[in-house]
Structures are given as structure tokens and as C-alpha cells.
Amino acid sequence: MFDEFVFENRLHILGKITATLLHEIRNPLSVVKLSLDYLKMHRDELSDDLLESVENSSQALFRIQTLVDNLLFFSRPNTKEEKLCSVEQISNYASDIVEVEASRKKVLLIREYSTDIHVIRCDVNKLLQIFLNLLTNAVEACNDGGKVTIRAYTNQSAFGGQNIVWEVEDNGVGISDEDKETIFNDFFTKKPKGTGLGLSVCKSLADELKSEINFESQLGKGSKFFLIFNANLLENENEI
Q1: Strands (E), the chain
Q2: Which of 103, 111, 156, 222 has the fewest CB atoms inside 10 Å of its own CB, making it the most exposed?
Q3: Per DSSP, which regions of 64-130 are E strands?
Q4: pTM of the model
Q5: What is the dotted CATH code of the domain comprising 82-239?
Q6: Closest Cα to residue 227, out of 147, 126, 152?
């Protein structure tokens, strides 16, 4: 019993140290990002080689920031910072961030939103993190010249009400049948440089947002991931 208490106490301390280190890492990363963004503002003055170097650095920085955010999710307490937000607005912001890597791979990003504005009450940062993880996965799954389609719409739920659905579909490598049961598990990955945290974080965040995450996939043809919100979360869009 005492050994178990000591072990849990050490884990608690390790979690605090990890969170502190990750926050400290984020500060210099922000400086690097600002510097890269400044260089991009003067892209016309840069040679093709230098511009390519800046773009590659931006993408590498984005990967580090995503990893840090995913690790911070596991080390921080579960807090609620909910407010009204537009699903399309957060989706567009996430898409703009991923656009750099998509352009580098010549992957076409297509946005198909229904005419309704879908407003929910949620933690914006958590929703953004889900969108970024799923969009990044979709782009990485595509070969050069691939296509990623982002949609937001309302449909009928199985219980007679309505759902708000956000989905991302790619025509990439797809997921094998044997992996479909484990893709949301911690540390499961088939990527050579993957951490296996992205989808498990998405699942945990979706649970916190009282939403459902699901997917369809066919090996060699692509995948489609859904984030489904109960329409009861809809609020007056004028309150945004």
C-alpha cells in the first residue's frame, strides 16, 4: 500500500515537472514562429532555396507544437472553459494552419459547409486541437496531389433529433481492418516518426466535449473521420 502511494506521488510530481517543462518549451517556440512568420512576410525577397527552408522549418515547428500540446493534455487537470463558437470558424482556422503542409505536398484542401452556421457551446481550444490533429493526419495520409475534404452539416440522429457533424475525408492510404480496433489506443501508430498520441487525445477531448468521434476507412482508398455533436448544444448564434 505504501509503495503504491509512493509510486502515485512520484507520477504526480513527474506530471507537474513535465507540464512545467512543456510550458517553458512553448515560449521559445513562439519566438521561432514569429520569426518565421516575419520571414514569410518578405517571401518576395527570398530565394527559392531560402523560402523552401523557411517553409520546412515552419512545418517542423508545427509538428513540435502539436506534440507539446498533446503531451500537455495528459499532464494538465481537466478544466472547462466553454463558450459559444462556430464550428465552421474553428474549422477554417485549423485549415489555415494545416494549409502550409498541404501546399508543400500539393494536397488540395476543400471546404464544404452547409448554408447553416453551426454554433455550439464548447472549449474552443479543445475543439481546435481535435480539428488540427485530424486534419494533420488526413494530409499526412495523402500522397502528393491528394485531396482532403472538410465538411460541416446537420443531420438526423438515430433518436429523432438532430446532430451537428464535422468531418474530414481524405483519399490517402486508409486503415487496415486489423488496425481499426486500436487506432484510438494510447501510443498506437504506424508512422515512422509518430507518437501514437494524436487520435487518443482526440478521443479523450471528444468525450470531454460530450461529442462522438467515429470513422470509416478502406485500405488504399482513404478515410473519413466524423465529430458528432448533439443538436441540444446549439445556442443562439447572435451570442458569439
Answers
A1: 82-86, 108-113, 119-123, 147-156, 162-170, 211-218, 222-230
A2: 156
A3: 82-86, 108-113, 119-123
A4: 0.65
A5: 3.30.565.10
A6: 152
Give the DSSP letter string of 117-174. --EEEEEHHHHHHHHHHHHHHHHHHSPTT-EEEEEEEEEE-TTSSEEEEEEEEE-SS-
Residue 169, amino acid: E
- The answer to whether 185 and 175 have CB atoms below 8 angstroms apart is no
- For 3, 173, 196, 223, the CA distances from 190, given in Å and listed in that order, are 36, 11, 8, 15
Contact 215, 223 (CB under 8 A): yes
Q: Cα 125 vs. chain centroid, distance in angstroms?
A: 10
Residues 23-57: pLDDT tens digits?
677 778 777 888 888 888 888 888 888 888 888 88
Q: Which three cell numbers stand for residue 111?
A: 471546404
Give the model confidence (pLDDT) of 207-220 as tens digits. Answer: 888 899 999 999 98
Query: What distance in Å separates the CA atoms of residue 211 and residue 87, rounded to the nearest whole number?
Result: 13
Rounded-to-integer distance, Cα 60 and Cα 46, Å: 19
- Give dist(CA 185, CA 201) in Å, integer: 9
